[in-house]
Amino acid sequence: MTSFNLLARQGAKPRGFLGRYFAARMEKTAALRNGWVLSQLDLQPTDYVLEVGYACGIDLARVAQTVTSGLVIGVDHSETMFHIAFKRNKQHIDTGRMQLQVGPASKLPFAFPYFDKAFSINVAGYSKEPVNDFVELKRVLRAGGLAVVAVAGLSEKAGNRLESGFRDAGFSDVRLTQKDGMICLVGRKLT
Q1: What's the predicted TM-score (pTM) here?
Q2: Helices then strands (H, E): number in the chain?
Q3: What does the pLDDT read at residue 2?
Q4: Tens of pLDDT along 133-182?
Q5: I need a labelling partner for 138 at 20 to 30 A (CA). Which of 1, 30, 150, 175 fits?
Q6: Dihedrals phi, psi of 115, to nearest 5 degrees
Q7: What is the DSSP pairing of strand 141-152 with strand 98-102?
Q8: What is the rounded CA–CA span in Å between residue 74 and residue 59?
Q9: Continuous segment of H or E residues that includes residue 183
């Protein structure tokens, strides 16, 4: 396996020592640009919010600062990220305001539409079938729910393909914005 392949695999699903290294790197970059993505959610104190791909949990912590009487839930497929995010967010978890789960974006562990808002940052760029993941994200949103999906480092053409996939998944009022190398899709589940 080449060094590039090893690094790409760690970026997609961090684990072990290299996974912890990636978490530290993610934390630094997340602090700089993810605030803009989170602002697209128009968070309210009573919202039920899902993050798919919570990584080191920094954005969950930021969301929990605003969502003070709702619930924040994160799903990530990496056990390494679960442990890092759990440690960071233990206070919110202990008070019942936050839950963390391990699982794939393609099969979210919720039986019915539960969330007012859902977001994902840099997950769609690693997905083999992002449209299927978007359909799953829409499935767990309540009617009127808002989804925000952001990916860094994509070309305009790749961003347009993701936007088309977001629409194909059934989201309405879809808009694509860009800032500092980040492409952000915002859409609503009407019914």
Answers
A1: 0.86
A2: 7, 7
A3: 52
A4: 999 999 999 999 999 999 988 888 888 999 999 999 999 999 999 998 88
A5: 30
A6: -110, 145
A7: unpaired
A8: 10
A9: strand 182-188
- Contact predicate 180/150, CB 8 Å: no
- Asked if 102 contacts 75 with a C-beta cutoff of 8 angstroms, the reply is yes
Q: What is the pLDDT of residue 147?
A: 98
Phi, psi of 188 (to 5 degrees): -125, 145
The alpha carbon torsion through 86, 87, 92, 95 (nearest 10 deg) reads 90
Residues of the chain with confidence (pLDDT) below 70: 1-32
* Secondary structure letter of residue 16 according to DSSP: H
Q: Which amino acid is it at 126? A: Y
* 58-66 helix and 16-39 helix, angle to the nearest 10 degrees: 30
| Residue carrying the six token digits 């829409």 | 138
Indicate the number of domains in the chain: 1
Range of the domain at 120: 3-188
Q: Which pLDDT does position 58 carry in this prediction? A: 93
Half-sphere exposure of 91 (CA within 13 A, CB side): 6
Radius of gyration in angstroms for the set of CA atoms belonging to the chain, rounded to a whole number: 16
Cα→Cα distances 87→3, 80, 90, Å = 30, 11, 5
* C-alpha closest to that of 65 among 99, 89, 29: 89
CATH number at residue 88: 3.40.50.150
For residue 4, what pLDDT is reported?
40
